[in-house]
């Protein structure tokens, strides 16, 4: 059996699966997930197979099952599954034989289309087409359309379809069962309510049938089961006739900003009314509205265009852009992006540093309003961060490693996979001691501010975040009497294969940066915005804090390049750890192979890294280090890095671009792009890799495009890969919309808004863009 | 595709499925369920299929998910499923082709055996044997054994097997996740705790491998997922070699009487120690112990033997006996029998009148100790019955229609299937107004007492039950001023198709009987057992109650045969209801067809009955009515009865025997036996029909055997069906063990215990049995 995921048509808009194999259901369920930031629906097939995972998530609707479990995004009622029985045989593509099989996600329109001819051993044959979308123009709406043509016989077709609330998160049931109801003999409604967070979900669905383009009303029978309401339809279709089944559904919840103050009965009524209207418009019209939204809100606005001899590259960035769009709840600043988007149960819908470091740059440059909303989420989650700080004996805002509800604080699970040595679950230490997230957020706020100059955001939220995170870090420092400096002991750095380390270079540098940055803006506010300074001072006791910062900041130990080889020690112990032959793991086909041979404790004592650690420090604070230091550290750490985190490859690709290792950068970009889109058929089972998908954009715009904000200045220093002839993308800089087009010879920058002049740096030289600028790259 | 469920070998001990069809998975899952009264495990296959239902129930471990749901028997962690991958292909009998397929439940030994040759399209072929049992000698123990022989190629075999706690009741999760652990690198343990009732379940499992009868240790890797712990094994098997996989598991809970006062860690430790020992003994030895228990505790003790030209009859009673054994928690008087035994989620593990009226007679006559335990459950559930009475404004004990925990009171769900007219769920009225259960229990106590003469039971529990139920009924009566008598209005009788009726004949007669019976024993105790009378009087205020009974009992309205046609009105309205042509429904292939045309309200207004109502009155209180009355009512009601309840056919069969309609009785017995064992492949999906299975025994012993307790006397009046030449069965009467053997010519009764003389009635004549009696049936 051969798979061809990531293939593409001439235009490179389409992800195609051309073989059906039930061993790999998870792959396309996840990478072809449909959504719109409000909801995500995994692309399980209409018919059921063993091993499938059906998920319908609505962003931000977290629920905690019990005290032993962390809050997670609950798997809501499903409308996608339909049981189709053709002359008494349930549709099941593993039976009989199939031909002309194709499942395609068109990322331009957001439509998923599956076509197949199914032939039964007895000779009956059906031509089947399944289409589906989650609307980008109406975030509550889901459309489905099925066409069935019996090719060489008539068919008695039975359809069992409705709303199935028998969904769980790997068997964990988050919902209390509510009303189920049939209205007007055709509209089905099911209510469910999360058990602990008390969010009502109202799901509605309706069916519409056509035979050879004429509406028909099949015989129907209502059927209710536990948490389930379905209609059974019976319809006779002649040989060669086309049966069309349209199913239009919607989901509303009491978590929706516009519905949160309503009574449940109002939500029930308005969602039912909405569906009545949608039913009249029909699948094609509703799809058109949605694909128009894809055009205007996504592709016209911020598409990245690549001319490459390898057409996969264009597809990869469109795939990334599609997923970045559907994973981000840009409609609601009380929510953030989950590590698997809305495409799977992995990481329980929680938000990590993935947002700030790997995904946010895309939004800052492409759609700053959404970036702001994501940062507002962090501001609004300060109650949780304060709670966590207090629980741990610290001051200020200690952001949770994993974040869900605004006031939750830490929600990282405590126990993980099996320890092969002890036979017990392994303790997950990230929630306790992976603390750099608090610096990452502060850094992201600064990055947002520098790129957008959004002073309104800063006054409302940004400065306070600077100060509150600095307060945490200054309280977190530990005085080392012998060394006469401040240490940060017992942490997990970005490299999660070394737990309980002291003075992780990344953590210490970023903590220092956070405090220094806060001190800088403290002074600036005091001088320029006394009112705000006063308010913040009163709220956060800034004067006292500032004194502490001043006392401590310069005696924070920041690991520096060793004299002998310029290698920055990843932490106090790493360079003394034992080295083993990593060849087996460097060439592994699936991540995490090392844990089949060693347990976490053992791995912690080796010179082996899961992902970029020192390298990400060099990437974020690039002006701190010389080129020689960067190369020395690349040469030391990359061979010891297994890239077992999907966060690793993209950062390495950008750094390789910076270091002018273009071929390597391109190779790493390809590998990063193939984490989800590539041939590993199991890697996406628990959901797509949101950070890695953000990384695809970073490889291209930050890496090959060379766009970077450095010390508040725009730098553009492109390094197109060999295979590329042209790269074009828009960015927003200080509110101006720039279109940057890069070829091997020239870079053209156009300011489409043209309100102010933009300065930028190219190869160390400053340029000023008025409205149009053409730079001959070979001459500069 | 052809099914042959209910086929048999020469000895009629074996239920065989000889075709595999995934449309009908539920059938054999339920009818081939394994168990021992402590636990029941549905016979889902090792490999998974869409539509399967895996259930592992431990009797009496009820849990309530939330306030919207009633308490139910939770679906515990599964050990049965194993993923078997043969040269990279997951075992899946719907792929490739199969031959020599057979799945057999041997009810003599309690072993389930499946054999199949599986050939893949590429030509690879495997001979597979799966064996399994739940031990009757050690109630915690489950044994599995798989044999795999690669026929014409070598095989790389992967097994993924362990304990899966990702089980739910149709998506409702009753358990909190507990520890999971691998001990000694081979013993797996998983703990789960019911959320609301706080019962700990400890499940342990261990694997053992042999290649050509030599133990081997395959490569293994531990793997933990949410609520799941598994070992992955890899093993190479040569062409023609036999791989044996044994998996031995056990389940212990803190609900177990002997473990309820232990700490969880003690239960963990003792269960693990038990498995260590069991592992050493191995599958065959453990199976032998269990099948020995089947021999001595079941078949040697109380087998019914039939010589019939139709060998199905012998199989049917063995099938019934097997199920009656495994469905009954005879080890624990805090538990009772569920309407679906332990074979499915239907009726949520609740106990109905099914126990007293349909199943208890089997236990009273065959194993009185178990019958006593089941009645003790009712006694111990008096707190719940008092609660229900109080909630409804009545006195005494008002037993719940559906019963679970002893102190629950009513647990009938409030909402059921869809109403085809309104599109809303239908309200289930049984829990509110199907009140005859309280009389049924009193009647069953009396029956137990009369048959066993167990005075100890009566003094501890029985008399009090008589009095307390009578107190309820006297408080339940409603004075009708016009008629100057007591009515019982707004009830559901046994015929659940007529809701909210007044003066249901069965209910009123049984209420009268309950009060009269209590009055009789009140007097008797007062005269003969003053101490007990005193105690009960103090507890229940009997003197006051007795006065009320005396005042009321004879003016309770009891519907009597009409003068014109001897028909007893089923209730005040039935005979005036509209009549419709029922032909379509009388010949239906699946029960409940009428609800595809009418809703409950409409059905309630027709002369149509779900099941025996007046007929069951005639059956229970048979001495009240003349033969003419019986025949008149049969002729009136049977044609109006759809037998849509599995409780209907057996009662009709017994009555047909009584009325000397032998052919009809035999036909009804066959139909009753085929409710589960017959060709309807969907009827057992939610579990076997416990009452109907009790009914199979009733058809034979009460019906064809003619054994009945009438007014305290044993009556034996056999009517062998045409096809039978001999019927033999044991009964206990007043503590004596009698073996009754009936042929067309003679009846031989042997008293095996021989402690006292036994009187019995045959055709109205009294006989006395000393130790042996031979009755020439044609001459008497």
Number of strands of chain A: 31
What percentage of residues of chain A falls in helices of 4 or more residues?
25-40%
Q: Which regions of chain A have little confidence, pLDDT < 50, spanning 5+ residues?
A: none
Tell me the number of helical segments of chain A per DSSP (H or I, 4 or more residues long): 19
Cα separation of the termini of chain A: 52 Å
Mean pLDDT of chain A: 95
Largest sheet of chain A: 10 strands, antiparallel
Structural class of chain A comes to alpha+beta
Oligomer: homodimer
Largest interface: A-B, 45 and 45 residues
- Described by the principal axes of the CA atoms, the overall outline of chain A is globular
In angstroms, what is the radius of gyration of chain A? 27 Å
* Relative strand content of chain A: 15-25%
